[in-house]
Amino acid sequence: MNAPVFNEIIHAPNRLQICAMLSAVDSAEFAVLRDTLAVSDSVLSKHLKVLQTAGYVETAKTSGRAAERSTWISLTPAGRRALAGHLAELHRISDLANITNSG
């Protein structure tokens, strides 16, 4: 189990959703992420660049004719660990709120 650690890189709403979606699959196509998040190509690219710089995602382009090329994104092992730690911290924080509200 990963230690609870708040991760400001992952915490941004779109980046948290990207990591969560990628954690459930081996990889996802750029267009699927873009459409699911309902953002533009440039917005998704910006978030992916932040995650890639941190070492949390990798991208791979398929080869073929221009119309058939696509970009696939996957969560790296470091990204999976960072997401797990961040989610553990969010659960820890949530538990504090539950204790405060139930007392």
TrEMBL record:
Q: Name one Pfam family in it.
A: HTH_34
Q: Which PANTHER family match?
A: BSL7504 PROTEIN (PTHR37318:SF1)
Q: What is this protein called?
A: Winged helix DNA-binding domain-containing protein
Record keywords: Nuclease included? Answer: no
> Where on the tree of life does the source sit, at the highest rank?
Bacteria
Organism, as annotated: Nonomuraea jiangxiensis
Q: Report domain Winged helix DNA-binding positions.
A: 15-93
Looking up InterPro entries in the UniProt record yields:
WH-like_DNA-bd_sf (IPR036388), WH_DNA-bd_dom (IPR027395), WH_DNA-bd_sf (IPR036390)
Keyword Nucleotide-binding assigned to the entry: answer is no
Q: Name one GO molecular function term.
A: DNA binding
Q: Which UniProt keywords apply?
A: DNA-binding
